[in-house]
Structures are given as structure tokens and as C-alpha cells.
């Protein structure tokens, strides 16, 4: 039996705590492929993610705070380029940017440059972290894959900035932290004490009252975020400025989608399509043992292949509908069969919807979001 997430999602403290730079170097040297996520052990509301494979870097991003980070990076590095659409925080940067690239027919070379710039900025923060909680997901990749660059090529141009961020870690751990003015008089006194620093720091006094992170402060004040953090570090040490976390973490339960399919390719496709959009994917590859796990987990939506060894999807769906705890859960049949008789058999077995292979990620996501929302609405009635 092969499946993942059959137990409750572990807390950050249950994950190994590592030095991010060492982990990244090890994965690259072993030419492993996958996705590394590092959560800041001092502020679990902040985490960074790196995609890589075959010794090459594919992309790096924050897992949150896109509406704060991307405007800063774009204004600093590509001032003539503006995102014309609002940037949601509940999706991945890569997914959002790829949709934007396709919708606006951006030149591929320009778009790759944009991805490289964002990757470099994220790597500065990833590599500067002294410790973090590790999650490594082998063979999780990007679709489409548009950037593949040597690690050294991306890191060498920003090596000095990485070292500076690393030196600041003991005082200010992340540009996502939110500085708050505690003592205005002491702040101004310290600002003017540094030769020539007081004037531009005096201009951000009002901004320090607005619950902004360092990225937002730098964007609004038109400053380099590393310069701003370096200038404010003495004020933090002296107590003139306090630091708040990026956000207060509340326990969030991600909707769970169970995928019952003996194809590793389909499992990977479903995982990539749904996890970036906030779903947890429960992978079940043995249909005969899937029912036990489904009862244990009670997912929000069940995706089920029809053609599987040992037990086909029709039979499994009928068994699901006979279990009180599962009978109201939406079941989507995944199949290459398009015939009317096959659809009728699926309906008679109790399935909710029918998705014909091959299907695209947007089609799958839209259906799962619809069924998940409908199920949540029914459960609240």
C-alpha cells in the first residue's frame, strides 16, 4: 500500500531543523530533484521554497507575502514592468506569474529574466537563514519548467548581500518582519547619530505606525530593503523599534483531496495542480486498501480512477457510498473512457462528477474548488 498524509499533518516542531544552505548544497551535489521548503524556526509565519533538479535551480519563492515581496523586487529590478492585476497571497508566485506571462504574451527571454531575478532575491533570504524547519518533497517540480540555471550562476552575483543578511539575522531575521516604533525620541536621536542617516530615516517615522513589513516600507520609501534593515538594526537593538511577526499563525485546516489512482504520473499531476492552490493531496495507489484510509481521513473530495488492478473505480465508489461517514463526500471519476454507457455506470455507482483524461490543471482545479466549496456549505447547514 502506498499513500501519503495518512496521519494528521505534522506541526513545524515535528519536522527536522536544519541549516538551509547545507541542505541545498547537499541536494544539488546529489543532483536530486524536488522541492525544498524551509520555515523560519523563529517566526513560523515565514517560509521559503526552492525547486531544483539535476543539479540545476528552477525557481525560488516565498510561500506567503507575495503582495509585499513582488512589488518591491519588481520596482527595484524592473521599474518599467508593472503587474496590471492584483496579486493574491493564496497561490504560488510561479503559478501566478506563468498565468500572467501567457495572458499577456510576454517575451520568453524577458520572462526568464524575471524568474531569475525573483529566484536570486528569494535565495538571499533562504541561504541567510541560520536554521529552519525542513520539508523536502522529491520529484515535485514545475509545469511549465521555464528556468534551469546553475546554482553558482544565480548566487555569485548576490553573494555579498547573502553575507550581509546573514550578519543581520541576530537582530532582524527577515524582510517580512514588521517593525513598530516604540520610542520616537530615541529613534530620531539614534538616526541622526549616524552620519547622514537621519534624513531618510526621519521620513519613514509615519510608516512605522502602519503595520508594514520591511518590504512594504522599502517600496513606499523607495529604498533598498537591505540598506533599510541595516540602518534600522541599531534602533531595534536599542529598543526604539520592536519587531512583530509577519502574521499571527492561526491553525489552518487545508481542504483534503484524496486521489485513488495506481498511476504515479496521475498522482504527481494531481499533486502539482492542487497543492499550489491550497489543497492537501492524499495519494492512494492501492484501491483495495483505500477505503480504510478514506474512512480514517474523511477527505473533502475523492478523485478516483476507473481502471485499476484488483478493484475498479465503480466497485470502490459503490463501497464508499455504503459508508455513512463517506456517502456525502463528492467523488470524481478520472478516466479515459468517454462513452455514454461508461458515464451511466459511473453515475449508477454513485459518482458526483466525471473527468475525462487527459484534462488540464485548470479544469481539475476548478472542479475540485467547486465541489469542495459545495461540500463545505452543506456541512455548515
TrEMBL record:
SUPFAM superfamilies: CheY-like
Keyword Ion transport: no
Keyword Phosphoprotein: yes
Ranges for region Disordered: 1-20
GO BP terms: phosphorelay signal transduction system
Modified residues (4-aspartylphosphate): 305
Pfam families, per database record: DUF4388, Response_reg
Sorted UniProt keywords: Phosphoprotein
Residue ranges annotated for the Response regulatory domain, each copy included: 256-372
Biased composition annotated in UniProt, kind: Polar residues: 1-15
Name of the featured protein: Response regulator receiver domain protein (CheY)
Species per Swiss-Prot/TrEMBL record: Acaryochloris marina (strain MBIC 11017)
